Amino acid sequence: MSTYQLAQLNIATLLAPLDSPQLAGFVDALDRINALAEATPGFVWRLKDEGGDATAIRHFGDDVIVNMSVWNGIDALHDYVYRSDHAQIFKRRREWFARMADAYMVLWWVPAGHVPTLAEAAGKLALLQRLGPTPDAFTFRDPCPPPDAVGTQTAADVLP
Fold it and tell me: What is the pTM of this model?
């Protein structure tokens, strides 16, 4: 069993204000989809503001919303994103969010119990945008095992 958990960040640029009719379908689904995440096996933590979601947190700009969470592993997060009712909302993302030229989602391993900060997450996203997938910042398409997985080695393991 790993001593690491999977952190994820994704950002989205709104096509309209959150209180607009265009985003009503997204906003109306937030509570249900967030509750689904929290009830999904493998869920550990998610970023929340005073309203119980993260829509008021605008770390990346006034029209960019953020989602950040921690999971017990990549399979748990993948199942939630692509195999739960979340997938139906995900398929509608172009109704609500602009296409982004750069990476907008990043995964990385954190020590179990660590709650990542937005500054940490922003650094991981910037790393992914700059270098592409690495063991420090990766994607579902190019996943990396946790640092303590059998057969993996980090620079700290081999340096004196």
Answer: 0.91
